[in-house]
Structures are given as structure tokens and as C-alpha cells.
Specification:
Layout lengths: L1 H17 L6 E5 L7 H16 L3 E4 L20 H7 L8 H11 L4 E5 L14 E6 L8 E3 L2 E3 L5 H7 L8 H8 L8 H13 L4 H11 L6 H8 L1 E4 L5 E5 L5 H11 L5 E5 L4 E6 L6 H6 L5 E5 L3 E6 L4 H18 L9
The structure holds manganese (II) ion.
The site of manganese (II) ion has 6 residues, from loops.
Length: 341
């Protein structure tokens, strides 16, 4: 009886102090796509946080990695059995193989997916339960139960800070990248979360260090890809629809970034069927648009940036997408020019 009470007391204090009772062995992963500054920084932060509490925590390789954020995860973040499987690489197209190699030697009590939902992790968990920490939701949606904590937020990193009191300085990367340097996604809430980090060890030195790391040189092949691309514009030149001849995620991301200087609404189709969309127009909700194409694969995201992952893509499907895209933007876009327009 005494022992039970003690355990209960210990669990309760732990929950109060850390927002939840963590497992002894945790595998932390982001969604298989997109791999971005938020998912990777949250993964790193949670792994570090758990290890500081003397718990075991690892992550898996990612399917892709961008040079802007490829310094965040290190081989120590991945279990030796997985590194053996990938030949030491931190990137692998075979997430299932990597996971199966992992559980042969180290079976997690729980998998935590950050910045994405459980059905997007890209592998079968073989019965291990999944807890989700995510901010990809409509404004009225909330979840807080044994399966996850899901709430709108500027970045998944903000949920780690606000709810779970995880104050790892690396979360500055999560917030800066997902809000595009506090340009959107509840910027004042994001600033408050950053302030929390500065009260818990995020010094100017560290802050500047992370900023420098994020300011990586872009790949000049981005310009080549743009020259070779099929570029379609709306009549008013505010919306663009681009079909790339490459399936490189890094080039795709770079092209999105460049187009942001010229257009208010952007859709870029990658050769492998992954489509990214962004808008700066508060009247456009891209979630409504991508939902129409969920039947061809998967789709989701935020109001102002969303994605469709087509299982397979061909000219017919691209034509259908492009036509629907310009119709949707034409119907929903406000007429005001952008502040820089
Ligand atoms: Mn995010």
C-alpha cells in the first residue's frame, strides 16, 4: 500500500513538474515528410531533455535532410543498431528497415511524434504505442489525452516549451524557422516562447550561433531548376504554379523560398509527387484546397502553408491540380496587394 502510494506520488509530481510522465525508453520522431527546422529541433530537444532525466531516448534517421539544418542531429542521437543498418548515415529511405533493426535490440516503451501526426511517421510501429505532440490543426481543435497533445501553436517547439516545460535552447530553431523569423503564425506567442528560452539558458552567444547556422549558403542549382521548370502564372501575376524536373527536397525548398520574393500564392510540384503550397493572403485557407486531393495520397498542413503527397503523379493529375489551384486562388484571394507589392 505504502509502495503504491509512493509510486503514485512520484508519478504525480513528475507529471506536475514536466507536464507528463515520460517513459523509460522513448523513440522520438518527426513526420516522414516534411523534415524541417521544427520537426528536427523538437526531436533533438526532446531527446536531450529525456536524457537529462536519465531516461533512454533516441531518434531514427530521416528520409531527407536540408543543409540548413543538417547540423542538428548527430550520430549519438541514433541507436547504434540503426547506424549499423544505415552504414553510419543519418538519412535513410528505408525507415521501416531502420525501425525494425532498432527494435531487434532496443524496443521503446513509447514513440513520440513531434510536429506531425501518428499516421505520418512512415513506418509500422509493430505495436508500440504512439504519443503525438503537434500543432497542425484547425483553430478550434484540441486534444489532450493519453494519445497526444495537439493544439494550434506557432511551432511544435512552442508546445514543448509552454506545456511540457522543455527549455532546450535548440528550440529557438523550431520557432524561428516555422514562423519564418516571426513573420507569421502567432508571432507574439512565439516571441513569448523565445523569451522563456532566454530565461532558461538561451544566451546571446547561443542565439547568434544558431542564427549563423541557419543562414547557410543556398545551392546554386536552385536557379537551374527554376530555369528548367514549367512555370504557370495567374493573369494578375500574383499566383504561380511550378512543376519541377527534380525530386530533390532541398532544391524544391529552395525554389519555394525564391518564388516568395515574387508571388503571393505559390504551388510547387516536385517530380516525385510532393507538392508544397504557401500563401501570404489571410483570406486563403490552403487546408481547404489540399483536402480536395487527399484521395490521391495524403494532404495536410497549415492555413498558409500546406502540402499534398501524391502516391503517383502524371501530366493529367498535374493539369487537374493546376486548374483547381488557380480557380481556388481566384475565388478566395483578397484583392489587396501585399504590403510590399
Ligand atoms: Mn511545425
Amino acid at each position: 500500500m505504502f509502495r503504491q502510494t509512493l509510486t503514485w506520488l512520484r508519478n504525480t509530481t513528475s507529471r506536475l513538474r514536466h507536464g507528463r510522465k515520460w517513459s523509460k525508453r522513448t523513440l522520438v520522431v518527426g513526420p516522414s515528410q516534411p523534415v524541417d527546422g521544427d520537426s528536427v529541433a523538437c526531436t533533438k530537444a526532446l531527446v536531450q531533455h529525456l536524457r537529462k532525466q536519465r531516461l533512454e531516448a533516441y531518434t531514427l534517421p530521416t528520409i531527407t535532410m536540408y543543409n540548413q539544418i543538417d547540423w542538428i542531429l548527430e550520430s549519438g542521437d541514433i541507436h547504434p543498431s540503426v547506424l549499423e543498418f544505415t552504414g553510419g548515415k543519418l538519412v535513410s529511405a528505408d525507415l521501416q528497415g531502420a525501425y525494425d533493426a532498432l527494435i531487434a535490440q532496443w524496443r521503446p516503451d513509447e514513440i513520440i511524434v513531434v510536429d506531425g501526426q501518428a499516421n505520418r511517421i512512415g513506418f509500422d510501429t509493430r505495436g508500440v504505442k504512439v504519443y503525438t505532440i503537434d500543432h497542425h490543426v484547425k483553430p478550434d481543435v484540441r486534444q489532450d489525452d493519453e494519445n497526444g497533445f495537439i493544439q494550434p501553436a506557432p511551432a511544435a517547439g512552442c508546445l514543448l516549451i509552454e506545456r511540457f516545460r522543455i527549455m532546450e535552447p535548440i528550440l529557438v530553431v523550431s520557432i524561428l524557422t516555422d514562423t519564418f523569423w516571426l513573420r507569421h503564425h502567432e508571432p507574439s506567442r512565439a516571441a513569448r516562447a523565445l523569451a522563456e528560452l532566454t530565461r532558461h539558458g538561451l544566451t546571446d552567444e547561443l542565439f547568434e550561433h544558431y542564427q549563423r547556422k541557419l543562414r547557410a549558403r543556398k545551392d546554386p542549382h536552385i536557379l537551374d531548376a527554376l530555369k528548367d521548370a514549367d512555370v504557370r502564372e495567374s493573369d494578375n501575376e500574383e499566383a504561380v504554379f511550378v512543376v519541377l524536373g527534380t525530386d530533390s527536397p532541398e532544391i524544391h525548398r529552395g525554389v519555394m523560398g525564391e518564388l516568395g520574393y515574387f508571388y503571393r500564392h505559390i504551388a510547387v510540384v516536385r517530380k516525385d509527387g510532393y507538392v508544397s503550397l504557401t500563401t501570404v493572403d489571410p483570406h486563403v485557407d490552403l487546408r481547404d484546397f489540399v483536402a480536395k486531393f487527399e484521395k490521391y495520397g495524403s494532404a495536410g498542413g497549415h492555413k498558409d502553408s500546406a502540402a499534398i503527397n501524391f502516391k503517383s503523379i502524371n501530366d493529367g493529375r498535374i493539369a487537374e491540380l493546376s486548374e483547381a489551384y488557380f480557380a481556388f486562388i481566384g475565388e478566395h484571394a483578397s484583392n489587396e496587394r501585399g504590403v510590399n507589392g
